[in-house]
Write a structure and sequence with these properties.
- The complex is a heterotetramer, with 2 copies of chain A and 2 copies of chain B.
- By secondary structure, chain A is of the alpha/beta class.
- Chain A contains 11 helices and 18 strands.
- In chain A, strand 9 (134-135) and strand 10 (141-142) form a beta hairpin.
- In chain A, helix 4 runs parallel beside helix 5 (176-185) and helix 7 crosses helix 9.
- Chain B is of the alpha/beta class.
- Chain B has 2 domains: 7-111, Translation factors (Elongation Factor Tu (Ef-tu), domain 3); 123-271, Nucleotide-binding domain of ferredoxin-NADP reductase (FNR) module (Rossmann fold).
- Chain B has 6 helices and 16 strands.
- Chain B has helices at 31-36, 53-56, 91-97, 133-145, 190-201, 213-225, and strands at residues 7-18, 23-29, 42-45, 68-71, 74-76, 81-87, 104-111, 123-129, 149-156, 174-179, 186-187, 206-210, 230-233, 249-251, 257-259, 266-268.
- In chain B, the strands form 3 sheets. Chain B has a 7-stranded antiparallel beta sheet with strand order 4-3-7-1-2-6-5. A 7-stranded mixed beta sheet of chain B has the order 11-10-9-8-12-13-16, sandwiched between helices.
- In chain B, strand 14 (249-251) and strand 15 (257-259) form a beta hairpin.
- In chain B, helix 5 packs parallel to helix 6.
- The longest helix of chain B is centred in the middle third of the chain and has 13 residues, at 133-145.
- Chain B is globular.
- The model of chain B has no long low-confidence stretch (mean pLDDT 94).
- The chains are: A alpha/beta, B alpha/beta.
- At the A-C interface, strand 6, strand 10, strand 13, strand 15 and strand 16 of A face strand 6, strand 10, strand 13, strand 15 and strand 16 of C.
- The complex binds flavin-adenine dinucleotide (FAD) (2 copies), flavin mononucleotide (FMN) (2 copies) and FE2/S2 (inorganic) cluster (2 copies).
- Residues 23-26, 48-49, 72, 74, 76, 102, 130, 168, 195-196, 219-220, 223, 253-256, 275-278 of chain A line the site of one flavin mononucleotide (FMN).
- One flavin mononucleotide binds next to strand 4 of chain C.
């Protein structure tokens, strides 16, 4: 049998050699991982969330472990977009790594400015808009939970760049399908999900939240079943179904620790996946996921990994269908 | 980070010692780490023992999820062995305390910047508090072997908390022991004993310190007053240990943050602000 | 020191000897646990979700284990309200156990009918309305995610019973605080949270969801940080704060495995807690939680457990405060 | 459920045998369980070994979260020992396969309804498939000891999958072995061999069967045709093992569900619908 075709097309010319990327904020700017293995063997590297101005981040403690997961509140520590463009992207680009830049702003205007500065920068393959930030302009409204604000933000970025735009959705919503529809309507070329779930851990001896900022974002295997389901939902909300692809490709993530986990996302409807927290536990995970997916394809006689996208939706019986209506598919409430 | 040297290794437990108070000391066969590691460096240990190779891929145990950082307190390149010592604090350390000879643990390392000293700094004083003596034991042995004159000042809460003290006899030129309650050695805090020692004993070319935050803040204060070069080894909650998660932040004097895992764990005292 | 006072007042005369209950659907109708220990040592027992007509439940597989959690889709298997009243409640009541009956319906009218039948039944201490069921009348809208529908449902039940009404909130919403406000406005005496999070696990070898019904509800330690945060949010949304209690008591649950976990919920703002999935792992857990809370109070010189309710909110600095706005307190989106 | 007898016990591993193919057999010292258990009953085993008592409360390991059901395949009340046998299927069984002597595991049990037979049913035929032989070994030994005439018909995929066969020699009146590929014993499926045996050997008063779903469906079919009383021991994914989670549903002929943990695991064949 020929090598399985692992390539994926994420739209607007963004074609990856394979469907596996690193998740933003979990691989820095690629420098550390580049010493361990050849980053070109990954589909793409999504670098740390970048803001207009440099940010020194939140006071520690910034992470706390929870059952099969971790909460983080790093506070978007990063050197700012200009420094990222000047010093962080060039070495990766020179080396031939597919670089996706994750950006975060306080307002549609800030996202627009970030996108403008990235447009035309050599070596930037795509922009990922992290829209889970509180919107300061709109009195603390969160872009990632309001379809109109999200659409406005995507539209603003869309108008200033011809780079592929991936919009990273927040899972902290009643119906992530509606968010996906809104950003695709506004010009997103792909959506990625999930970002972290908002959570908290309390130090019962000291009677206060453990993280210095109180709340944090939950990542890791604990959230995997929730993330897989949200990918499943978005696939349907974007018109995907038995044999039909979704309107735009989905990048799935949330607790992927190995190839089996990654395949759950692909079968639920993701065209590509990202490895996040797992990299902390084992820096070679993303590479092993690539290899594991390839092995799976060989073992099952799958010619192209894209044939697996959403395949579990096809298999799902009427009961799943019926259960999984417009409103986000509540199960029966146990 | 000495990232060039980072490997994922399997450490086979060849010896597991435990004491009633939750202290443990593991000797692990991990030749590559033993060969590369320098004093002050650490490993990230997965707290679940590995199972049979053919079953390992089946066995996803994600709770606890993250590896735990442990200093290397001894390394023997010839035997291919390293030693870790620890105390039971939470769930990760409690699991490691239960390790049995024959079990294998996954290690990432060696990690972090080691203790680095110019040869000219001949007279060294190692100041350790509690389990903070771990990296100092390795440093003391190596620096003594390479011709430095090494003294130790170790402080503990009480006699039954004394750990790592005996083995300093093999290489330490001067040995000072203190406990907070006076149940062993001198009664008092290490920082107070340090102040007196620096006054009485005269010249020390460098202090290497490791211990709880309060102790380190006090020790660096004494060193600054006495104008003695001081290196500190810090502990912070770590997500990854190799610089990608940004969780191990420690404040610098200018208000920005350094990373303990890659910029440290060993810092010159003036590089970090231990008061915040 | 005197024994700490563990009693809690959940409103409308519902006073529990201690703040620990079993969660609905995780202790059957109490029969099995009653053989293991004296159920009167718990604050209350919340029995399996009960519907108007008997239900035989979903086809297996009904559960799948996930990292530090489990997905279930039992399908509300129960003998129906009449049988529950005739055969299940009397033995518990005779024995002196505080019994709370969890009910589930398809429409406000069904909840009303269930509440009507329970009103005046000897030994029923309170009703818990599980409002995470799809509403058939409203074309599949989910009562638990629509404030108006939820309020209508609570109002309907309120009008036919003088029993204390606890409303069990779904966590699958953008802002659970708004849901809490809606049901309290409609007459809820207390709120309980969280019910399970909707999730999915996929069998990658067979390329289909593992559960027969596709989706399931995630419970267990994996969700604890999410549940603690939702209790924290609801406490604030109901006016709780430094030294101020919430407008109605909150019953917190989600991944409680021991007394330490239970105290996280109490410190976040819960007046009482429920033990769910942990009972499967160790049937004595709820009892051990009672004992552990009592020990904690002694060790810390706490006179009454109610003094701990929301105590972590008091300690929380301005940063948590600032972070935690009207819109549900997004962290900064990492 | 024999709920009166359910206890939480600690099982100390006194012997751990493993074979290359992922089979394992654990002998556990657990006197209370050993005394109470009856053939057909099972225990729910926590797959994480316990750590030192003083640290156990610290060590919350919730992945895997749920206990795993295992049949008791031998019990010795005098020595206070029980034995479990298993094969590595997923993560829980892979962890148990790594158990070492001296480790302790938390057990809930004994659980479930045992094999119950009137004395008059003298001639028994135990029909096992693969690891399904586990509860039959215990049943065979006990029923033979109490005066029944017990024969066994065990089927496996292939020779290297044969497990538990040798020990039947001690008590079985007749012994029939089959493998699907004919590499050991007779070639064929147990259900086919069973049909022939029933025709050739004449009267059997009861069949006790345990094995994979397909085999059980076939075996109960043959028993029904031959009008032989048949008890089956079923396996289903279990959340709790004692009747509170409702996860272990098995269809009854009337379309409602029985619970394998408390209504079973042993059922009379006609009580359950094995075709759905
Ligand atoms: C570079 C470096 C080197 C180190 N070297 C050593 C060494 O040589 N020897 C050594 O012993 N240690 C060393 N440490 C420290 C060691 O890494 C920690 O002790 C260890 O990681 C603790 O892990 P744990 O799982 O035992 O505790 P954790 O589970 O992480 O918990 C730590 C403490 O917090 C408490 N806690 C956690 N969550 C909560 C909650 N929600 N509410 C209340 N309390 C909570 C726990 O009960 C526990 O007491 C080093 C650290 C670093 C950074
Ligand atoms: C009453 C009773 C008695 C029993 N007695 C015995 C006995 O004596 N001996 C014995 O060996 N067994 C016995 N069993 C069966 C035993 O309980 C199971 O084999 C065991 O629980 C399996 O647990 P596990 O963790 O190894 O596998 P699990 O992790 O539960 O998984 C089982 C299988 O499903 C697969 N799987 C899980 N999740 C996924 C996913 N998302 N995608 C794809 N695949 C997945 C795993 O890879 C694995 O192959 C008994 C069962 C019952 C009910
Ligand atoms: C420490 C940490 C930092 C993160 N930083 C960012 C970020 O800067 N931008 C972003 O979009 N997502 C960020 N994320 C979210 C991840 O990219 C990913 O969406 C999430 O962690 C879920 O995947 P996982 O469970 O595999 O980690 C961060 C996650 C972690 C754990
Ligand atoms: C198997 C199972 C069945 C459940 N059945 C019900 C139910 O009938 N009614 C209800 O309100 N909640 C039901 N729940 C939800 C629990 O009561 C609880 O809200 C949830 O499991 C979170 O708590 P936990 O993590 O401690 O289990 C069920 C949960 C499980 C695991
Ligand atoms: S521990 Fe991850 S960056 Fe230091
Ligand atoms: S396993 Fe829980 S009811 Fe049977």
């Amino acid at each position: 049998m020929a090598l399985p075709d692992l390539s994926v097309d994420l739209g607007r010319g963004l074609v990856l050699a394979n469907p596996v990327m690193t998740a933003s904020g979990t691989c820095g700017f690629g420098e550390e991982l580049a010493r361990l293995f050849d980053l070109r063997r990954l589909g793409a590297v999504v670098i740390k969330g970048t803001t207009l101005r440099p940010r020194s981040g939140n006071p520690p403690p910034r992470v706390v472990e929870t059952p099969a997961g971790m909460l983080n509140s790093i506070g978007l520590q990063n050197p700012g977009i200009d420094q990222v463009i000047a010093a962080k992207i060039p070495p990766l680009a020179r080396y031939g790594v597919t670089v996706i830049v994750n950006i975060a702003g306080d307002s549609p205007a800030e996202y627009q400015e970030l996108a403008r500065r990235l447009d035309g920068v050599p070596g930037v393959a795509a922009i990922e808009l992290n829209i889970s930030c509180p919107n300061v302009d709109r009195g603390g409204m969160v872009i990632g939970t309001h379809p109109e604000l999200a659409a406005e933000t995507v539209g603003a970025a869309r108008s200033v760049t011809s780079l592929p735009l991936i919009v990273k959705l927040s899972p902290n919503v009643t119906d992530i399908g509606i968010m996906a529809q809104a950003v695709v309507g506004a010009g997103a070329d792909a959506v990625s999900l999930v970002n972290t779930f908002t959570g908290m851990a309390i130090d019962v001896e000291r009677r206060r939240p453990i993280l210095a900022r109180g709340v944090g974002g939950l990542s890791g295997p604990a959230i995997r079943p929730l993330a897989v389901y949200q990918v499943w939902q978005v696939f349907r909300a974007l018109g995907g179904g038995r044999g039909r692809p979704a309107r735009v490709p989905i990048i799935g993530m949330g607790g992927i620790m190995n190839a089996r986990d990654a395949l759950e996302f692909i079968l639920a409807g993701a065209s590509a996946v990202a490895v996040g927290t797992a990299t902390f536990v084992d820096p070679w995970t993303a590479l092993e996921v690539v290899e594991g997916i390839e092995q799976y394809c060989r073992r099952h006689g799958v010619q192209a990994v894209r044939d697996l996208v959403g395949a579990a939706q096809e298999a799902a019986g009427a009961e799943v269908e019926q259960h999984d209506g417009e409103q986000g598919g509540e199960h029966d409430g146990e | 980070m000495n990232a060039e040297t980072l490997v994922k290794a399997v450490g086979l437990v060849t010896r597991a010692e435990r004491s009633g108070r939750g202290f443990f000391r593991l000797t692990l066969h991990a030749p590559e780490v033993a060969r590369k590691v320098q004093p002050g460096q650490f490993v990230m240990v997965a707290v679940h023992p590995l199972v049979a190779a053919e079953a390992e891929s089946l066995v996803a145990r994600w709770d606890p999820l993250l590896r735990r950082p442990f200093s290397i307190c001894r390394a023997d390149a010839n035997r291919g062995e390293i030693a870790l010592m620890g105390e039971t604090r939470g769930r990760g350390s409690a699991l490691l305390a239960a390790a049995l000879p024959g079990q294998r643990y996954s290690l990432l390392g060696p990690l972090g910047r080691p203790f680095r000293l110019e040869r000219a700094r001949r007279r060294l004083l190692l100041v350790g508090g509690g389990m903070g003596v771990a990296p100092l034991l390795f440093a003391g042995e190596r620096f003594a072997a390479s011709g430095h004159e090494v003294s130790v000042l170790f402080g503990y809460r009480t006699q039954s908390a004394v750990v790592g003290w005996e083995e300093t006899a093999a290489w330490a030129a001067g040995r000072y022991l203190a406990t907070e309650d006076g149940s062993a050695g001198e009664k008092g805090l290490v920082s107070d004993v340090l102040r007196r020692l620096l006054a009485e004993r005269g010249k020390v070319d460098a202090i290497l310190a490791c211990g709880p935050p309060g102790m380190l803040a006090a020790v660096t204060g004494v060193a600054r007053e006495a104008r003695v070069h001081c290196l500190v080894s810090l502990e912070r909650a770590m997500g990854c240990g190799f610089g990608v998660c940004l969780s191990c932040a420690v404040a610098r004097p200018d208000g920005t943050y350094a990373l303990v895992c890659t910029d440290g764990p060993v810092f010159a005292a003036e590089e970090v602000d231990l008061t915040v």
